[in-house]
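This protein record is not my work; I was only asked to verify it. Would you go through it and say whether the fold makes sense for this chain? Here is the record exactly as it was handed to me.
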Amino acid sequence: MTRIKAPGLFFALAFAGLAMFSGSGAVSAQTIKIGVVSTFSGPAANFGEYSVKAMQLYEKLHASELPAGVKIELLVRDDGGPNPDKAKQLAQELIVRDKVQILAGAGFTPNAMAIAPLATQAKTPFLILNAGASVVTTKSPYIARFSFTMAQSAAPLGSWAAKKYKTAFTLVADYGPGVDSETAFTSAYSASGGTIVGSVRVPPMTLEYAPFLQRVKDAKPDVLMVFVPAGKTATGLMKGFVDLGLKDAGIKLVGPGDIVPDEELANMDDGAIGVTTVYHYSAWADRPANKAFVEAWQKEYGTSTQTNTFAVSGWDAMDAIFQIIKAGNGVVDGDKAMEVLKSYKDANSPRGAISIDPETRDIVQNEYLREVRKVDGKLENIELETIATALKDPVKDQMKK
């Protein structure tokens, strides 16, 4: 059963204190405690809400698979958004006071980076459920990413866009994932013969895009590539794109799937129709595993709710957590857990076949070319084709060469 509590007082303990509490990283218990530090309030509240709902749903449907007498408890904490100090405080409390055996969450890259040293010191596995900057997994050997990296979407998108559009403008949120998106798209687009005519970076959580979009309109590119955090920020971007006349001017809008989140499409008008994205998941994918996932989700939470990228990350991460618990017969040891995570594979995830790269501890997954279409009066992200299969993080892959 999940508990959601307001954070307590900050425990100003040194890293040595963390090590004292964590010991060797092995904890034998009938209740496995999982600390989830993510965003449950503000424009990005969907980050944490959907991940936790999916984790709870997986636990409910698969509880009988756990070793006899073993139960799971989720301890949920709200970091409020991109707030590294708050995220670090909450994670430290979970490790030291609540003695969690596993950490999960991190809606934003700066928050993940702040938690990483704590995971290392306490030898606590830390499963990333959203943060998409490539650098994240390099910050602790106890991190495994179950979400995505921005380059996984942006690089194949750049190659595809260059075949159809001669000039491009990039608009991205000014933090790690935005910079990664801009860099990966620009590199692939230019290498494939396209010309970048301008770029702009915007505050990560802004809802007002008019000044930035006016610069795009004045530049008159064939295509605009955008990355902003999924959620209300994406809806604000879409509104500005239509209201300022960029769509009417014939500028094509593309990006990673964050710009047309599955759960936010209901809040976007028909201006979103035709937006093309590259992403690892769509709630409307016709894979049998996804249909079963969506059916179970809507049975539990109502037919008016929609699965999304945060939900599928939470679902897959909980599947991996179950493997850790079963492998240890109810005992969670940090180092042994990481060995399980580094060999993790699932051929039937709702997003398609996935695995964890044992070298980088990043997710390996398919990327799909998608288009927003209106189906039976509702906007949907329709997968058109698999644009990349079993794609590793292109940034780290390039670093090896």
